[in-house]
Design a protein that fits this description.
The chain is α+β, with helices and mostly antiparallel strands. Helix content is 45%, strand content 27%.
């Protein structure tokens, strides 16, 4: 698991992550705001958001390497926390793709891992 923590407020942290996703050549596929969704049913919960990230060119490479591995994309970044500390974590792409035991997926995972780490590191650089 790749992880970092920050004392940024959730909105600032998520915005910084979105910028870093673009800077790493990836795309935000989906932003799931758990606390906003819970508020719709009248429940207040601590920060819990998921950013799904990938890029169409990487998706094509996954499908070409192993079509069933498409179930493991997009990759997810989880932002959670209570109080003044947020935890941001993601599974390395190499770990996500490892169970498939396909060399091209292993290579893709190795290519994506530094991008995911750089996205998390963008919070520490703030």
């Amino acid at each position: 698991m790749l992880q970092t923590t920050t004392r940024m407020d959730p909105e600032t942290a998520v915005e910084r992550l979105k910028q870093a996703i673009e800077a790493q050549g990836l795309k935000l596929v989906s932003h799931i705001n758990g606390q906003a969704n819970a508020a719709k049913i009248g429940v207040e919960v601590p920060t819990d958001q998921i950013l799904e990230v990938f890029h169409p060119s990487y998706a094509v490479r996954v499908w070409q390497a192993c079509k069933p591995a498409g179930i493991d994309i997009p990759l997810r970044i989880h932002v959670s926390g209570e109080g003044d500390v947020l935890r941001v974590s993601t599974r390395p792409a190499s770990a996500v793709f490892a169970p498939w035991e396909v060399p091209d997926l292993q290579a893709l995972g190795a290519e994506l891992d530094p991008k995911l780490q750089a996205i998390l590191d963008s919070l520490e650089a703030a």
